[in-house]
């Protein structure tokens, strides 16, 4: 019979969100270019772009959720959704490769400069040239707040894994008691407990890193160490914020009962993303905080 569906895929109906999202992205990009050239209308276009992109993301993902509930996400479609998430994380890995590349390029082939009274000065004495971090620069103690944040992210990796396994085994009920009961979480509800703990740990990590940035002994524009440090750790911090929002959405959906042991790709994608954030931080901690600052005096030390 003509028009009969004989495959495992679902054909999406016409939708307005792709064109709206593309227009919003163009507005955001154009606004950024104008803002960088001191055009007074740049900020207005950036704001329109951000609102358009956020609205598109919300509605597009809402459509994906409705498709899943309607039974359109067959095993083949779920598999390809996982492929898509894997490719997205792979692209993010290459994104961080660029920041690591910039940092190691500067660290392995340092310029002949030193840090004197808050300013960079060129060194003419070859005996003191090519030092990393530059002579006179104080760095953050890697075994203070950075090490604490490492433990926090590692703990968050275990809590999100706990939530994932609880989801798979259907541990989403039980009597409500104490603080968990006040939050609408049953004693045997490992999914919600794990998500709550992971979100709180993510917020704690972000708060500590914000405090660390405020008290850093170097700035973003002052020298190459500060520029590469803030670009690498700052974009990781941005990913932590995105991952925390991702998990908050999953928690809200868990309260609505959207996830089942058979259909929970949205949560699975969030868990993968969070583990990616954890692994990147381990590389950042070892490479930038420990190795990158070795030999330099610690701030406040």
Question: Can I get a quick summary?
Answer:
By secondary structure, the protein is mainly alpha-helical.
What is the approximate shape? globular
CATH topology title of the largest domain = Four Helix Bundle (Hemerythrin (Met), subunit A)
Count of the domains? 2
Count of discrete alpha- or pi-helical segments spanning 4 or more residues: 8
Assign the CATH superfamily of the largest domain.
Answer: Cytochrome c oxidase, subunit III, four-helix bundle
Instruction: Tell me the major beta sheet.
Output: 2 strands, antiparallel
Distance between the termini: 79 Å
CATH architecture of the largest domain: Up-down Bundle
Mean pLDDT level? 86
Query: Could you estimate the helical fraction of the residues in percent?
Result: 55-70%
- Give the structural class: mainly alpha
Care to count the β-strands? 4
Note the run of SSEs as H and E: HHHEEHEHEHHH
Name of the CATH class of the largest domain = Mainly Alpha
Strand order of the largest sheet: 1-2
Mind telling me the C-alpha Rg? 24 Å
Structure characterization notes:
The longest helix is centred in the first third of the chain and has 34 residues, at 75-108. β1 (113-116) and β2 form a beta hairpin. The chain has helices spanning 17-36, 42-69, 75-108, 145-168, 178-182, 190-214, 224-256, 265-291, and strands spanning 113-116, 119-122, 172-173, 188-189. By secondary structure, it is mostly helical. It is globular, with a radius of gyration of 24 Å. The strands form two sheets. The chain has a two-stranded antiparallel sheet with strand order 1-2. Strands 3-4 form a two-stranded antiparallel ribbon. It has two domains: 16-72, Helix Hairpins, CATH 1.10.287.70; 73-291, Four Helix Bundle (Hemerythrin (Met), subunit A) (Up-down Bundle). The chain contains eight helices and four strands.
């Amino acid at each position: 019979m003509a028009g009969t569906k004989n495959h495992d895929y679902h054909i999406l109906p016409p939708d307005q969100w792709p064109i709206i999202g593309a227009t919003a992205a163009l507005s955001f990009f154009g606004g950024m270019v104008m803002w960088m050239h001191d055009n007074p209308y740049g900020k207005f276009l950036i704001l329109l772009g951000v609102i358009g992109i956020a609205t598109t993301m919300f509605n597009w993902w809402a459509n994906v959720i409705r498709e899943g509930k309607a039974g359109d996400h067959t095993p083949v479609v779920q598999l390809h959704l996982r492929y898509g998430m894997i490719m997205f994380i792979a692209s993010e890995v290459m994104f961080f490769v660029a920041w690591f590349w910039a940092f190691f390029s500067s660290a392995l082939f340092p310029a002949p400069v030193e840090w004197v009274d808050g300013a960079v000065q060129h060194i003419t004495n070859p005996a003191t040239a090519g030092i990393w971090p530059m002579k006179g620069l104080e760095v953050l103690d890697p075994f203070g707040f950075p090490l604490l944040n490492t433990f926090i992210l590692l703990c968050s990796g275990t809590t999100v894994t706990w939530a994932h396994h609880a989801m798979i085994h259907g541990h989403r009920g039980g009597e409500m008691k104490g603080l968990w009961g006040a939050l609408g979480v049953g004693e045997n509800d490992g999914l919600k407990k794990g998500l709550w703990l992971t979100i709180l740990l993510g917020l704690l990590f972000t708060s500590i890193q914000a405090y660390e940035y405020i008290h850093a002994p170097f700035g973003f524009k002052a020298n190459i160490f500060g520029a590469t440090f803030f670009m690498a750790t700052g974009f990781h911090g941005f990913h932590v914020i995105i991952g925390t929002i991702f998990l908050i959405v999953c928690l809200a959906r868990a309260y609505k009962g959207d996830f089942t042991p058979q259909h929970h790709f949205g949560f699975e994608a969030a868990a993968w993303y969070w583990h990616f954030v954890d692994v990147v931080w381990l590389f950042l901690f070892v490479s930038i905080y420990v190795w990158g600052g070795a030999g330099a005096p610690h701030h406040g030390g």
